[in-house]
Every structure is written in structure tokens, then in C-alpha cells.
Amino acid sequence: QVQLVESGGGLVQPGGSLRLSCAASGFSLDYYQIGWFRQAPGKEREGVSCISSSGLSTFYSDSAKGRFTISRDNAKKTVYLQMNSLKPENAAVYYCAAVSRRSISAIWYIDRGYEYWGQGTQVTVSS
Asked: Is pLDDT at 105 greater than 90 in this prediction?
């Protein structure tokens, strides 16, 4: 079965860092654009970042720019989201999602455009 599993979430202090992982099974990531989304209680799910199937193109939300970095290792069938300088407002459940594409989508941040989703990993930012 096609599965995506997020890991790496946890509790960090403001200003701290976490690296989230999105591991795929049942399919190859070679032709899949991967997006990271997050959802806080009472809020809409929002796009955080995405990476093209080749790994050569990336996008970030305004809040993520300069602090978060997305990367991928297709051999390991894993995509990463390095999060630095974390703020309390970054606390949320983070999800990864995949869609088969050869070129990155101009509307990468639309969650309905993705085919497969993980179950999410909780990120808490608190002193």
C-alpha cells in the first residue's frame, strides 16, 4: 500500500530546531512533488513548503522563508523539513503530502491537489 509517515516532531523551546521526516513506502518518490502542511487548533490547514520531484525547485510560505529548509533523498525515499528559530506560533500538526508531477505546481499550497497524505506529527514550541 502507498503510505507516507511523518516523524521528528516533539517539544522544543522558542528559538530551537527540529527536523521532520516524511518516509514513503509502497511507491517511489522519484516522480512526486512533496508538500509540507500544518494545522493548528481552530485554524485552516496551510502550506509550509514543497519540493519538486527532481529536488531542484522549492517553495516556502512567507512565514517559513529564511528559517525552514526542505530537502529530499530519493534513495532513502524520504523528504525532510529542517525548522530553525522556531516560534510558538509554529506549533501545529505537520503533514506531508505527495502528488505525481514532473514539474512543480504553481499552486503547490492547495492541499486538495495532493494524492497521498501522512497522519501528521505534532510540533510543540514552548518555554
From this structure: no
